[in-house]
């Protein structure tokens, strides 16, 4: 593996032509390059709402790691995101690249191997650099034909390799957090400022849970790398995104944003001073959330929290001393949508207790719920332990180690086939008991509005009012459609949605009723049409992006 200091810089320095690319698609199909239909390039449909049929949230996210690197080097650089194999080959042939950087996670190992082969064939003078989580694969250097395998943070590595100042401040790229959003068979309009901006304050997480690759990859327990140390710095980055992208909301991609209270409170002070009514989606562990009064979170603009619930009997320090059900309820009562994350197949799970544990998870009534199999992934303490104890299963392809299918290790009590059955049951049960996530979100938003519509801080009132425009219009129509959809298949959920519709109508009056009655039937029809399409095999793929920075055409350059 290559650490920053031991690699001699590229001879051309910042004149080197760089191609940064993610692995090629298509992704949502079974193929010889390790794509799997069960593992699409989608966050929600892959691991959160996949059992919610036409109500599943469909959306793509760009490859932020290479966007960060491109923004922070001064060499001429092309970024290719979600290429096809042909697009990758075309780009290699059309422009002579000195360096080809490929970003990947472990599941996409076979694509990385193929892309290295293609570079050697089509652009034999290029230096191949591999980065991202795939670099944690044991023995990778013997399995692919690459020149450098970079473990951990890549901006510093690439700057050093190009002979640039490694300690220069980090410039944040403009990132629209999600794209091609689709739900109930409808593509949502993509207007400027309509989607949150992604902000990446740090990588890694100091909590160091034994299964966590994000933590392990950037140093493990106690370690993380801050791109922005202070609330002031973060505030400036957010102001830039606000003016360039026209956004008011931010997806803060930091595994444990709330853990750094001082930084968060400094950010809040700046927001208050400048009257910023921003909204924020964050990841946070339960023990970090408990460092704040709920009102502080609300004033900070936190409108969405992704929180690990794991299990009531697990021993993770992030959960210690917390009643996560109570916490979830409180957050939702304050208008904060909660995305829970539960692991299926922990060490203490057995066929006898797993259903009870899943019921407990489902009982949190979160807005969204991610379920994942307990999965020892190379590079983590859990993998090391399982490997040493001879419990890793042999012959499992990397393409199948993604936590959404079957175990990759020998569990003490649960078989591989049962692991899939329990996982699928968890998704199904959450949907059956709690209904579609869209409905749950509306419930949380209404509670937040009712609690904060007269709050003294104008910024907070403004934020809830902004969010609630949808509740009065599009979401009212979506709820009408949901209520009617569930009438025959799940009476209880249908009744609950009806009750929420009644409360919304009471709160917002004619507008919401009109929206529901006029647009609701259309959405019911599009939802059913979407379900037929998906049942017939329709899948979704992200579009290819090609972005150049500091670019000089080949002839001029050489
Ligand atoms: C956004 C995201 C996604 C997006 C993918 C977007 C995309 N275009 O690829 C979506 C939602 C689709 C997704 C899906 C999956 N994901 Co994902 N995802 C993430 C997430 C939350 C953020 C990634 C990110 O941008 N981080 C911030 C950037 C700055 O960090 P970074 O990408 O690591 O990049 C840094 C370094 O790695 C390095 N680097 C990266 N690329 C390169 C390239 C070069 C050349 C160099 C030198 C360096 C370098 O430098 C960067 C800056 O420091 C991470 C968790 C996390 N916090 O990182 C999980 C994570 C990457 N995902 C993971 C997994 C397992 C999956 C899924 C398999 C999930 C599943 N089954 O449910 C699927 C796979 C889909 C597929 N077919 O490939 C794992 C990877 C585990 C591993 N060891 O390989 C992670 C770490 C989550 C976890 N802890 O389990 N994911
Ligand atoms: S708290 Fe979350 S991000 Fe941090 S180490 Fe644990 S699982 Fe990983």
Task: Please tell me how large the radius of gyration is.
Answer: 24 Å
- Termini separation comes to 31 Å
* Shape by Cα distribution: globular
Content-based structural category: alpha/beta
Helix content: 40-55%
Bound molecules: cobalamin, iron/sulfur cluster
What is the percentage of strand-forming residues?
Answer: 5-15%
Count of separate DSSP helical elements: 21
- The low-confidence parts are none
Biggest sheet strand line-up: 6-5-4-1-3-17
Number of strands: 17
> How is the main sheet built?
6 strands, mixed
Mean pLDDT: 95
How would you describe what is shown here?
This protein is α/β, with parallel strands linked by helices and 558 residues long. Helix content is 42%, strand content 13%. It contains 21 helices and 17 strands. It has helices at residues 43-47, 64-71, 85-94, 109-122, 140-143, 154-161, 213-217, 231-245, 261-273, 286-289, 294-300, 324-333, 354-362, 381-388, 416-434, 437-452, 458-472, 474-489, 491-508, 510-535, 554-557, and strands at residues 18-22, 58-60, 77-81, 99-103, 127-131, 148-149, 179-183, 186-187, 197-199, 202-203, 225-226, 249-252, 279-283, 302-308, 337-344, 368-373, 545-549. The strands form four sheets. A six-stranded mixed β-sheet has the order 6-5-4-1-3-17, with helices on both faces. A six-stranded parallel β-sheet has the order 9-12-13-14-15-16. β7 and β8 (186-187) form a beta hairpin. α8 (231-245) packs across α9 (261-273) and α18 runs antiparallel to α19. The longest helix has 26 residues, at 510-535. It is globular, with a radius of gyration of 24 Å. The two termini are 31 Å apart. The model has no long low-confidence stretch (mean pLDDT 95). Bound molecules: cobalamin (B12) and iron/sulfur cluster. Cobalamin binds next to α1, α2, β4, β5 and α6.
């Amino acid at each position: 593996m290559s650490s920053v200091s031991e690699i001699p810089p590229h001879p051309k320095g910042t004149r080197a032509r760089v191609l940064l690319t993610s692995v090629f698609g298509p992704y949502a199909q079974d193929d010889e390059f390790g794509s799997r239909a069960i593992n699409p390039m989608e966050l929600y449909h892959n691991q959160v709402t996949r059992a919610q049929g036409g109500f599943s949230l469909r959306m793509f996210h760009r490859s932020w790691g290479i966007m960060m690197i491109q923004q922070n080097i001064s060499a001429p650089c092309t970024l290719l995101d979600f290429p096809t194999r042909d697009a990758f080959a075309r780009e290699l042939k059309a422009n002579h690249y000195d360096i080809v950087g490929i970003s990947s996670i472990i599941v996409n190992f076979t694509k990385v191997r193929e892309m290295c082969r293609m570079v050697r064939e089509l652009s034999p003078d290029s230096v191949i650099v591999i980065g991202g989580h795939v670099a944690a694969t044991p023995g990778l250097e013997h399995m692919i034909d690459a020149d450098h395998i970079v473990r951990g943070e890549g901006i510093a590595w690439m700057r050093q390799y190009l002979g640039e100042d490694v300690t220069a401040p980090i410039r944040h790229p403009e990132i629209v957090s999600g794209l091609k959003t689709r739900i109930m068979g409808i593509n949502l309009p993509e207007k400027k400022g309509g989607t949150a901006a992604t902000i990446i304050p740090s990588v890694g997480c100091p909590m160091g849970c034994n299964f966590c690759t994000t933590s392990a990859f950037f140093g493990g327990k106690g370690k993380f790398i801050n791109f922005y140390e202070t609330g002031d710095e973060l505030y400036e980055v957010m102001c830039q995104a606000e003016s360039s992208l026209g956004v008011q909301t931010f997806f803060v991609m930091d595994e444990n944003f709330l853990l750094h209270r001082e930084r968060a409170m400094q950010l809040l002070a700046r927001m208050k001073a400048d009257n910023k009514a921003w909204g924020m989606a964050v990841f946070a562990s339960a023990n970090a959330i408990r460092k704040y009064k709920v009102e502080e979170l609300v004033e900070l603009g936190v409108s969405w929290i992704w929180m690990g619930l794991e299990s009531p009997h697990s021993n993770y320090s992030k959960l210690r001393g917390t009643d996560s059900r109570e916490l979830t309820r409180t957050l939702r009562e304050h208008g904060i949508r909660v995305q829970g994350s539960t692991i299926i197949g922990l060490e203490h799970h057995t066929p006898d207790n797993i259903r009870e544990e899943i019921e407990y998870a489902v009982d949190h009534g979160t807005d969204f719920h991610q379920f994942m199999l307990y999965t020892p992934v190379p590079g983590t303490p859990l993998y090391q332990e399982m490997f040493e104890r001879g419990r890793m299963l042999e012959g499992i392809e990397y393409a199948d180690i993604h936590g959404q299918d079957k175990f990759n290790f020998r569990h003490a009590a649960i078989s591989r086939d049962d692991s899939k059955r329990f996982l699928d049951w968890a998704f199904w049960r959450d949907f059956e008991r709690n209904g579609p996530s869209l409905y749950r979100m509306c419930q949380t938003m209404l509670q937040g509005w009712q609690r904060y519509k007269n709050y003294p801080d104008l910024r907070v009132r403004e934020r809830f009012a902004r969010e609630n425009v949808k509740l009065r219009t599009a979401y009212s129509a979506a709820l009408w459609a949901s209520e009617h959809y569930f009438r025959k298949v799940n009476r209880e959920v249908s009744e609950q949605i009806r009750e929420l519709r009644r409360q919304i109508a009471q709160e917002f009056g004619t507008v919401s009723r009109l929206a529901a009655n006029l647009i609701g039937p259309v959405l019911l029809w599009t939802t059913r049409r979407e379900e037929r399409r998906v049942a017939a095999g329709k899948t979704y793929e992200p579009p290819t992006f090609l972005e150049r920075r500091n670019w000089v055409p080949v002839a001029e350059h050489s």
